[in-house]
Write a structure and sequence with these properties.
transmembrane, alpha+beta, 3 domains, Heat Shock Protein 90, binds adenosine-5'-diphosphate, single chain, binds magnesium ion
């Protein structure tokens, strides 16, 4: 028996019928997938294969019903489609096993700390693993820094507190009575209280920065105005130490910034510069436009920061000398971390280089176009 050979108009009908049925099966398949959307990828792959096979079979059956092909030819076509479907299911099964196995490998790796991303995963899983690895590493570094900070700060708080308690007890017990010592103790206690308060303020500020809760009210300001404010604020400290503090601003240098916060960041740099510059030395602030950025720098005469310390000065609680004994004017090593946090919240950058008789700290901010 010879099968009917599809003529051209038959071919049009075949395409139309199979396409229609295919769309119907595809819609059903998508509905099933939606229903199974939280199941294993293996189940979804099986659905894909089943949809492909059913769509083909439906087409073949529809065509046989139009008697275009019949008898052995029809059986041959049906068995070929069925076998193809089985092969597809087999491949889907193997693939699903691999995907499921690899995702189990990923889950097992996540359970282990420190997390190391497994290699040779399928692309999407590899991306997830790499992203996770980075996030874990960042979290670990932050956690370490936090723990160090707590340890150092509690040490820094305890030492002056112990001194204050000793002085207060001596005053209370009448151990010191001569007026000069009594007033020295009172002055000392007041100084320590001020220092501790400033430290607690800094800690609070830093924790807000780290929590991303720094609220900036940004407006267009001239960097030279911020420089002038900072200069006025630091002038008494410079005069007391005999350091010459000056500013050079070529133009207004407009930036979009929270003037208070930016002034605080700059003040931290200036106070450091004055602290590390010997008397008769000078500290210079410069505001200018450089390579399309608003740029403000603080140059001092500190004699240079050791090369190995340069990348670490902005770290929380970093204070240079290995011995961490608090000195009279010693800070907690938070000033530069705060300055960095403020500058980065302004989409800016902060850096330091050794330059001439000392070092130069520099803040760079996006420049706002000058008004026309
Ligand atoms: N202008 C500077 N010249 C030399 N060293 C500096 C200067 N500014 C900062 N440093 C170094 O960086 C450290 C961290 O500074 P900072 O975060 O302000 O903390 P703190 O002032 O409380 O020590 C300082 O202890 C000092 O070692
Ligand atoms: Mg400081």
């Amino acid at each position: 028996m010879t099968p009917h050979v599809a003529a051209m108009d038959d071919l049009g009908v075949i395409v139309a019928v199979t396409a229609g049925l295919g769309l119907l099966v595809a819609a059903l398949g998508i509905a099933v997938m939606w229903w199974l959307r939280t199941r294993s990828i293996g189940v979804m792959l099986a659905v894909v294969v089943v949809v492909a096979v059913v769509a083909t079979l439906a087409g073949v059956v529809a065509i046989t019903m139009r008697m275009i092909i019949e008898g052995p030819a029809r059986n041959i076509v049906l068995s070929v489609v069925a076998v193809g479907g089985l092969v597809g299911l087999g491949v889907a099964f193997v693939l699903a096993r691999r995907v499921v196995g690899e995702s189990r490998r990923l889950v097992a790796a996540v359970g282990e700390l420190p997390f190391v991303a497994p290699r040779k995963l399928p692309a999407e899983l590899q991306t997830i693993a790499n992203t996770l690895e980075e996030a874990y590493a960042r979290e670990r570094a932050l956690e370490g820094a936090r723990r160090e900070l707590v340890a150092w700060v509690s040490h820094d708080l305890r030492t002056p507190l112990a001194g204050m308690r000793a002085m207060a007890e001596a005053l209370e017990d009448g151990v010191v009575t001569d007026r000069e010592t009594v007033s020295r103790y009172h002055g000392q206690i007041k100084l320590e209280v001020e220092r501790l308060s400033a430290m607690v303020d800094d800690l609070f500020e830093l924790s807000r920065i780290h929590a991303g809760a720094l609220r900036l009210s940004r407006a267009r300001v001239g960097l030279s105005d911020v420089v002038a404010d900072t200069l006025a604020g630091a002038e008494p400290l410079a005069r007391a130490k005999g350091v010459l503090l000056t500013a050079e601003a070529t133009a207004a240098v407009p930036v979009e910034a929270d003037a208070g916060a930016l002034s605080r960041a700059l003040a931290n740099l200036v106070i450091n510069a004055i602290k590390h510059t010997p008397s008769d030395g000078s500290v210079v602030l410069r505001a200018r436009v450089d390579q399309g950025m608003a740029c403000v720098s603080v140059s001092d005469c500190c004699g240079g920061i050791p090369e190995e310390d340069l990348p670490r000065v902005f770290d929380v609680a970093f204070r240079g000398e290995a011995a961490r004994t608090p000195t009279a004017d010693g800070g907690a090593g938070l000033g530069l971390a705060i300055a960095q946090g403020i500058v980065e919240a302004h989409d800016g950058m902060i850096g330091v280089v050794n330059d001439g008789p000392g070092c130069r700290f520099e803040i760079r901010l996006p420049l706002v176009d000058a008004p026309r």
